[in-house]
Design a protein that fits this description.
Chain B: The chain crosses the membrane at residues 33-54, 75-101, 153-176, 188-209. The structure holds two protein chains of two kinds. Chain A is mostly helical. Helices cover 71% and strands 0% of the residues of chain A. Helix content of chain B is 79%, strand content 0%. The longest helix of chain B is centred in the N-terminal third of the chain and has 33 residues, at 23-55. Chain B is elongated, with a radius of gyration of 21 Å. The chains are: A mainly alpha, B mainly alpha.
């Protein structure tokens, strides 16, 4: 296709530059969501009554379309990358809190008792015993959050060129060049697949005790989270 | 002005309750897009999921297809299909269906595949035909999971159908997109609230269907 990588100059970025911006806008929110979700999930497991209301609030937040979030946030954060990243962090939080809470809760009681008997305090037990055992569930959550985040950044194009690769789609419409839209869709999809593969590799590195075959992978705890979808 | 004031202002304005741009007709349009996309996605995902789950074959192919579909950005697909096909309902249905097929397909496959093999073997031993095993043994047991796949697909369609307004169709996204260009936050917040409400209604409906359709013996597990 002619002009596939011929990016209009008003985007002020090369193709590689757009990829960099896209990854930053997509992955920073996931990291922020993870940082927030870890203590929240700990609280939800410590105080069981907290879990249903937290789940309820997050379900409602997840149902709000990203574009509406962006537009409302413009009032506070302007037409900046931050406006795109805050809702994406919230969506990540929504996926990660149940993933971590359920994963941590599925750690067997004997394991916890053994850790306590060995003199682990609650914090150290959480960090060194519960989190590593819950790693597959947490990474399953991260996979959903990452794929969703990478896909949603594009919507930022609607609030004034804050959509990284999504800006290419706006440009494709403006200049009637479908190949730019094809470029954006394909590049975004490849980024999502690569990030997903990186997370799978990370899970394998973190959990060397788990079987590696594909069939086993399907039944790993928390993997059913993947059946939750990714984008909106 | 906080968000609640916007919501209150939006819903108390009587102009928002009538005509082609009124809440009832936009709501109906949104429901119509959602049902259509869900029906098409279910017509693709359910048979394939049931068949592959029953035979236990093709699981890797399903994982590959689902992962690929999940990686495609909805907004990008929408713009691309509009550029290639032109305006209309079809280019909006493409991203919505692509979005909804993976959760339906993967959960249906997993649900049928992980059914306890003991009753399945018993049914086969009693001479039940394969179709009977699938529809009278496996599907009833797998129904809660199958419904959960349909439910998450439906909620995602509801929330994503907002982008239909970006390519000149109606639906509740009309308020969000129009509000964005008119700098009318009241409309944006009102539209977002309506979408969230519709998503919650969808969740409640699926809860009701589950209560009604799932056999008590399965539910008690």
């Amino acid at each position: 296709m002619n002009g596939f990588f011929d990016i209009p100059s008003d985007l002020q970025h090369s193709w590689a530059g757009l990829i960099g911006v896209h990854l930053r806008e997509a992955l920073l929110p996931v990291a922020a969501g993870l940082l927030l979700a870890l203590p929240l999930a700990l609280l939800c497991n410590r105080y069981r009554w907290l879990y249903p209301p937290v789940l309820g609030v997050t379900t409602v937040l997840y149902a709000v379309p990203s574009l509406a979030f962006f537009v409302v946030l413009i009032d506070w954060t302007g037409q900046t990358e931050l406006t795109v990243m805050i809702p994406l962090a919230l969506y990540s939080l929504v996926v990660l809190v149940p993933a971590i809470a359920d994963g941590v809760r599925s750690v067997p009681d004997e394991t916890l008792s053994a850790a306590t008997a060995m003199g682990f305090g609650p914090v150290r037990r959480y960090l060194q015993v519960q989190l590593p055992i819950a790693a597959p569930a947490i990474i399953a959550g991260l996979r959903v959050a990452t794929a969703s985040s990478i896909s949603l950044v594009s919507v930022g194009a609607l609030i004034g060129n804050q959509g990284a690769l999504g800006n290419l789609m706006a440009a494709a419409q403006k200049y009637d060049r479908p190949e730019l839209a094809a470029n954006a869709v394909l590049t975004t999809a490849v980024l999502a697949v690569l990030c997903d593969a990186a997370l799978v590799a990370l899970r394998r590195a973190l959990t060397p005790w788990m079987p590696r075959s594909g069939r086993q992978r399907n039944t790993a705890p928390g993997e059913e989270l993947l059946t939750k979808g990714a984008a909106r | 002005m906080n968000v609640l004031n916007f919501v209150q202002a939006f819903f108390s304005d009587s102009a928002h309750w009538q005509g082609y741009d009124g809440i009832p007709s936009r709501f109906a349009e949104h429901v119509q897009y959602t049902l259509l996309a869900l029906a098409v996605a279910a017509a693709i995902g359910l048979p394939v999921g049931l068949l592959t789950g029953h035979t236990g074959r093709g699981g890797n192919a399903i994982a590959v297809v689902a992962n690929a579909a999940r990686a495609l950005p909805s907004f990008g697909l929408l713009v691309l299909s509009v550029l290639l096909i032109g305006f209309g309902l079809l280019p909006v249905m493409i991203p919505l269906v692509v979005l909804a097929v993976p959760p339906i397909l993967v959960t249906t496959y997993e649900a049928v595949r992980t059914v306890d093999p003991a009753p399945v073997d018993a049914a086969r031993g009693m001479g039940m035909p394969e179709s009977g095993i699938l529809f009278r043994v496996e599907v009833p047991v797998a129904l809660p999971l199958i419904l959960s796949g349909l439910r998450s697909a439906a909620v995602q369609i509801v929330s994503t159908a907002t982008i239909a307004a970006y390519v000149s169709l109606g639906g509740l996204g009309r308020y969000v997109i129009d509000g964005l260009y008119q700098r009318n936050y009241e409309k944006v917040v009102g539209g977002a609230t309506l979408v969230a409400v519709l998503a919650l209604i969808t969740l409640a409906l699926f809860r009701a269907v589950e209560r009604f359709a799932v056999s008590p013996g399965v539910r008690r597990r």
